[in-house]
Automatic annotation (TrEMBL):
The keyword Transmembrane helix applies. Keywords: Membrane, Transmembrane, Transmembrane helix. It comes from Rubrobacter xylanophilus. The lineage of its organism: Bacteria, Bacillati, Actinomycetota, Rubrobacteria, Rubrobacterales. It holds the Pfam family Ion_trans_2. The chain crosses the membrane at residues 58-84, 134-160. This is Potassium channel domain-containing protein. Residues 100-152 form the Potassium channel domain. InterPro entries: K_chnl_dom. The keyword Repeat does not apply.
Length: 296
């Protein structure tokens, strides 16, 4: 029984650590558990948002909190399963605590929780050689989870800021074109700047896939601005009439857009890589009204 509980606990701990590593430390990956949880919660949020649209705005933060909570739960239960067979003989109990009343799974869960959160009330202290190694190790893992989670949360906001900045620029350009009759895509430097920003957004989605699920207002949403972005490198007229500089930057922007739509399709939408199809699926997935006349 001890071996089975230990193996089960170790499996949960390793599953959590693997997922944490891929989600927080792997530059271009996402943990399989986190990815499944993200998708499930997003589908649930979309269903609820059909009746309560405002709830979709908290989907992203709620998904982040749920992922962190799932890691903590896996670690807590995993360590509890490892500790359980060693209760009560492997620990020293504070005065007044009876060994017969402190040998169940809930007691192991209590020890695991206080250790993982580094509270350590001191009423149950390890005395066996194995527990004197395992319990401090769990405390170290718990402290690492806390600091890594805080860093993860803080790193999300620059990512969202870059995406909103690109979106605002595209919407302002679209509005200016409509009011002035000028064409933004005739400026090679602007196309070059947009290319850089599109590449940054695409890389952000790969490194921080949870940011896809942060839903904003329509005037602040990249999904709504995508049709205008995709039009910029195309509506230039015959290539032979363009300067070499303009043609180069337009082609580069088109490639960046195709990479972005491919990433959206592969990681989140599961549709064909055709940019037009991806753009429409992106709008639908975030439940935006498909009225993009202002960006077309």
């Amino acid at each position: 029984m001890t071996i089975l509980l230990t193996l089960a606990g170790a499996a949960l701990i390793l599953a959590a650590l693997r997922d944490i590593f891929h989600e927080l430390f792997h530059p271009s990956g996402s943990g399989s558990l986190s990815r499944a949880l993200m998708r499930s919660l997003w589908h649930l949020a979309r269903r609820v948002a059909s009746r309560f649209p405002s709830l979709l705005h908290i989907a992203g933060p709620a998904i982040m909190v749920s992922i962190i909570a799932s890691w903590a739960a896996l670690l807590m239960v995993g360590w509890a399963l490892v500790i359980w067979p060693h209760l009560p003989g492997g620990v020293l109990l504070a005065t007044g605590l009876k060994p017969s009343g402190n040998n169940g799974f809930l007691d192991a869960l209590y020890v695991s929780l206080t250790t993982l959160t580094t509270l350590g009330y001191g009423d149950i202290t390890p005395r066996s050689g194995l527990l004197r190694v395992l319990i401090p190790l769990e405390a170290l893992v718990g402290f690492g989870l806390l600091t890594a989670s805080i860093s993860w949360v803080l790193s999300i906001y620059p990512v969202l800021s870059r995406r909103r900045s690109l979106t605002q620029k595209l919407l302002f350009l679209s509005r200016t074109e409509a009011e002035s009759g000028l064409s933004a895509n005739r400026d090679p430097q602007l196309l070059a700047t947009l290319t850089t920003e599109v590449i940054e957004v695409q890389q952000d989605l790969i490194q921080f896939p949870v940011t896809y699920y942060f839903h904003g207002e329509e005037h602040d949403a990249l999904a709504v601005a995508m049709p205008y972005l995709m039009r910029l490198p195309k509506d230039l007229g015959p290539p032979e009439k363009l300067s070499a500089d303009l043609r180069l930057h337009a082609t580069t922007l088109q490639q960046a857009i195709e990479d972005l739509t491919s990433t959206l399709s592969d990681l989140f939408l599961g549709v064909s890589d055709d940019p037009e199809t991806v753009a429409k699926a992106y709008i639908r997935d975030h439940l935006y009204a498909q009225k993009t006349d202002s960006t077309n």
